């Protein structure tokens, strides 16, 4: 059995390469059938904000790419409740179907995976 | 770099034969690309190519083999969404070859 | 399962440390290295947060990074690189906050 990996994505979508890199790890791992999870934390939850128009910045549409995660077999998708709350994001209006977790559930989530990477 | 000549028009291809400009794609272009690969496009091929273009429109990336199979199964049913069917249609490399013929970028997560 | 969390960014102007403290499990350890050792600056807000988190013997800092920055603290156990390696092995996994 392959080791499970939790990817914690905690950077805003257009600030630098981190958000894209986290997604690339997830897509590559998913394509190879690895058991993966992805957690959006801190500014990472801005990746899930509605009505983004990355074409204005000549960027690829990260939000559209994120939608492909379930197709790549990455269905364990989570967001941190407090990060959403602090940033005024409504969990009901995110661009991705995620499970929203409180602090205690975050610790349990990390515990459940064999490996974790945060970027 | 190479070019595909079609109706007195030169269409740019990258070194692996993928369209440089995705807007160049049309059904005759797909047909011409398939000929270069020695492939005769049947209705079964076309429905997969249509599906790939739909995938790209939805997710803005090219699928690797596994998501291609999953998406095909979702849209066309498990009889067509399986590796046997897709491998048979696209010479054993469905993600790469079908993406090429559908005018999508080369899949990045594909070996 | 225990996780060793490794932070190397300054806690000032970034919330890696506060997020990490939020999701730290009861068996998890925290190692501060690089600019993250500024979190141990006496009288600072991050030090208060660390003391509040009450990690006891689960809080570590790389000795050379402390010394280089002129910081000494009783809050964390100062360790060298061999001890860092041992610490990584003592935990089930390592989570680097890149």
Walk me through the structure.
The complex is a heterotrimer of chains A (119), B (111) and C (98). Chain A is α/β, with parallel strands linked by helices and 119 residues long. Helices cover 30% and strands 18% of the residues of chain A. Chain A has a five-stranded parallel sheet. By secondary structure, chain B is mainly alpha-helical. Chain B has one domain (1-105): Arc Repressor Mutant, subunit A. A two-stranded antiparallel sheet of chain B has the order 1-2. Chain C has a single domain, classed as DsrEFH-like (Hypothetical Protein Ychn, Chain: A). Helices cover 34% and strands 21% of the residues of chain C. Chain C contains four helices and five strands; from the N terminus they run E-H-E-H-E-H-E-H-E. In chain C, strands 4-3-2-1-5 form a five-stranded parallel sheet, sandwiched between helices. In chain C, strand 1 (3-7), helix 1 and strand 2 form a beta-alpha-beta unit. Chain C is globular. The chains are: A alpha/beta (119), B mainly alpha (111), C alpha/beta (98).
Helix content of chain B: 40-55%
- How large a portion of the residues of chain B is in β-strands, by DSSP E? 5-15%
Topology pattern of chain B, helix = H, strand = E: EEHHHHH
Named CATH topology of chain A? Hypothetical Protein Ychn, Chain: A
Shape of chain B: globular
Helical fraction of chain A: 25-40%
Q: Strand percentage of chain A, roughly?
A: 15-25%
CATH class of chain A: Alpha Beta
Overall residue-averaged pLDDT value of chain A: 94
Tell me the number of helical segments of chain B per DSSP (H or I, 4 or more residues long). 5
Strands of chain B, total number: 2
What is the overall shape of chain A? globular
Low-confidence stretches of chain A: none
CATH-defined architecture of chain B: Orthogonal Bundle
Q: State mean pLDDT of chain B (0 to 100 scale).
A: 90
| Rg of Cα set of chain A | 13 Å
Strand order of the largest sheet of chain A: 4-3-2-1-5
> What is the fourth-level CATH superfamily of chain B?
DsrC protein, C-terminal domain
Strand order of the largest sheet of chain B: 1-2
Count of discrete domains of chain A: 1
Largest β-sheet summary of chain A: 5 strands, parallel
Enzyme class (chain B): transferase
Subcellular location (chain B): Cytoplasm
Protein name (chain B): Sulfurtransferase
InterPro entries (chain B): DsrC-like_C, DsrC-like_dom_sf, DsrC-like_N, DsrC/TusE
């Amino acid at each position: 059995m392959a080791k499970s990996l939790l990817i914690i994505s905690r950077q805003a979508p257009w600030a630098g390469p981190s958000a894209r890199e986290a997604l690339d790890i997830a897509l590559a791992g998913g394509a190879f059938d690895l058991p993966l999870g992805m957690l959006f934390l801190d500014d990472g939850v801005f990746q899930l904000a509605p009505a983004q128009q990355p074409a204005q910045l000549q960027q690829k549409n990260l939000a559209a790419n994120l939608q492909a995660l379930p197709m790549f077999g990455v269905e364990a998708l989570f967001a941190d409740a407090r990060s959403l709350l602090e940033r005024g994001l409504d969990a009901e209006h995110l661009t991705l179907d995620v499970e929203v977790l409180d602090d205690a559930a975050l610790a349990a989530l990390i515990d459940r995976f064999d490996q974790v990477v945060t970027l | 770099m190479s070019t595909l000549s079609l109706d007195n028009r030169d269409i740019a291809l990258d070194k692996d034969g993928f369209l440089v400009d995705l807007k160049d794609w049309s059904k005759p272009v797909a047909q011409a690309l398939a000929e270069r690969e020695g492939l005769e496009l049947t209705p079964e091929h076309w429905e997969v190519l249509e599906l790939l273009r739909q995938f790209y429109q939805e997710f803005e990336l090219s699928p690797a083999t596994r998501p291609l199979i999953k998406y095909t199964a979702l849209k066309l049913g498990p009889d067509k969404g399986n590796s046997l069917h897709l491998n048979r249609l696209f010479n054993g490399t469905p993600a790469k070859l079908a993406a090429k013929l559908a005018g999508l970028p080369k899949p990045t997560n594909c070996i | 399962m225990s996780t060793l969390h490794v932070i190397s960014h300054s806690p000032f102007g970034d919330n890696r440390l506060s997020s990490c403290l939020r999701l730290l499990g009861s068996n998890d350890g925290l190692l501060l290295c690089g600019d993250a050792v500024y979190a141990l600056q006496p009288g600072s807000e991050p030090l208060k947060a660390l003391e509040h988190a009450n990690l006891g013997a689960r809080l570590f800092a790389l000795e050379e990074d402390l010394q280089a920055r002129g910081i000494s603290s009783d809050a964390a156990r100062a360790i060298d690189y061999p001890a860092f390696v041992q610490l990584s092995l003592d935990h089930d996994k390592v989570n680097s906050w890149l």
